[in-house]
Amino acid sequence: MADSRVERAVEVLSLLAKCREGREEMERLDGFVGVLVRVLLNGSPRGVQHALSTLNSLCYCNEGMRWQAKREEIEEICLGFLED
């Protein structure tokens, strides 16, 4: 049950990240990238998909978010998905 709520929440975030206003609000939140990283590491396949979509939108549009993602070692996590 909790997994489905997290999955749905991350799905909504991925939709909000597609618009400028949504991204701007997410960019203001301290530790937001870290929350998405936890979903990548512990979430369901669908939750992971939405977390990656959200990160893609944020990182594409904001250099600061790219640096946060780099510090959280997102690239290594994604490479790990390729190995699985």
UniProtKB/TrEMBL annotation:
<dbReference type="InterPro" id="IPR058678">
    <property type="entry name" value="ARM_PUB"/>
</dbReference>
<feature type="domain" description="U-box">
    <location>
        <begin position="4"/>
        <end position="65"/>
    </location>
</feature>
<dbReference type="Pfam" id="PF25598">
    <property type="entry name" value="ARM_PUB"/>
</dbReference>
<dbReference type="InterPro" id="IPR016024">
    <property type="entry name" value="ARM-type_fold"/>
</dbReference>
<dbReference type="InterPro" id="IPR011989">
    <property type="entry name" value="ARM-like"/>
</dbReference>
<protein>
    <recommendedName>
        <fullName>U-box domain-containing protein</fullName>
    </recommendedName>
</protein>
